[in-house]
Specification:
CATH topology: Aspartate Aminotransferase, domain 1
Strand order of the largest sheet: 1-2-3-4-6-5
Order of helices and strands: HHEEEEHHEEH
Strand content: 15-25%
Shape: globular
Number of strands: 6
Helix content: 40-55%
Distance between the termini: 38 Å
Largest sheet: 6 strands, antiparallel
Number of domains: 1
CATH architecture: Alpha-Beta Complex
CATH class: Alpha Beta
């Protein structure tokens, strides 16, 4: 797999190697990220982690043995949203754990993305 700052083919390859339910769940999350932040770049990092970036890393996702993970890349943001996140999912530091049977709600992901984009590109 290539390790560049923009390599959607590597992301496709990674996702293609996952079991159907995990691939579908992560692909849906991927499409939500890309539709919410159209200018986002994507790549694989550490061989298995999908990273989405603007000026810097924005969010990430990965399939792990017992769950899927969504990386907010911001412990402060995850802490500020902890009560909302823990109503339906587990959170550890800046990482939200979920499963294909219990995907992340789109409105939650959209709020996380809006906060991360605002942090990287504050309004003038």
């Amino acid at each position: 797999m290539a390790r560049t700052k923009d390599d959607p083919a590597a992301v496709d390859e990674y996702l293609a190697g996952l079991p159907d339910d995990r691939r579908t769940a992560l692909e849906e999350l991927r499409q939500l990220v890309k539709s919410t932040v159209p200018e986002v770049r994507e790549r694989i990092s550490y061989g298995t982690t999908v990273i989405f970036a603007l000026d810097r890393d924005l969010v990430g996702l990965v399939a792990q043995p017992k769950h899927l993970s969504f990386f907010t890349m911001s412990p402060e943001l995850a802490a500020s949203m902890k009560s909302e996140i823990t109503r339906t999912h587990k959170v550890s530091g800046a990482t939200i754990h979920f499963t294909p049977e219990n995907p992340l709600p789109a409105p939650l992901v959209e709020r996380i993305l809006a906060a991360r984009v605002a942090k990287q590109r504050p309004a003038s």
